[in-house]
Amino acid sequence: MELPSISLLSVTPIYIAILGLIFVPITLRVGMFRLSHKVDIGDGGSEDLLRLIRCQANFVETTPLAVALLVVMELMGAGDTWLHALGATLVVARLVHYLGLSGMGPFIGRPLGMVGTFTVYVVSSLWILVAALG
Q: From residue 27, how far is each of 5, 32, 98 by CA, in Å?
């Protein structure tokens, strides 16, 4: 697909795409567990499936707002350094959180991931407010 020669967004689409690709295996893990354990709806009383569902849901609950804030920053003229720093922080935070919550990595990843995600929320929100009011 050929992109238009002038684009309003050049940095945030990279991080949106990376996060989209991260979401695929997160979702597939839930689906594969459901298939292998024959659980159509809910968690079937399985704590393992409940954990996977919460991992997926947490990604869905936290990622869109952070991405929206980054898009607004870019549309308002934020520099590439800001956008790459926050975008990379978001990607790492979401991965670390997932690994900690899912049990695939050390539990410390869960709080570290949330701190990273909240850092993106706070820094991007403040950047937007300063730019909008300044």
A: 34, 9, 12
3-state SS assignment for residue 11: coil
Residue 2 region, left (φ>0) first, then alpha (ψ -120 to 50), else beta? beta
Q: Which residue ranges make up each domain of the chain? A: 12-133
> Taking the mean position of all CA atoms in its chain, how far away is CA 92?
9
This prediction's pTM: 0.92
Tens-place pLDDT, residues 69-122:
999 999 999 999 999 999 999 999 999 999 999 999 999 999 999 999 999 999
Spatial CA neighbour of 71 closest among 122, 7, 12, 130: 12
Other residues' Cβ atoms within 10 Å of the Cβ of residue 47: 8
- Other CB atoms within 10 Å distance of the CB of residue 20: 11
Task: Give the tokens for residue 127.
Answer: 């950047």
| CATH no., domain 12-133 | 1.20.120.550
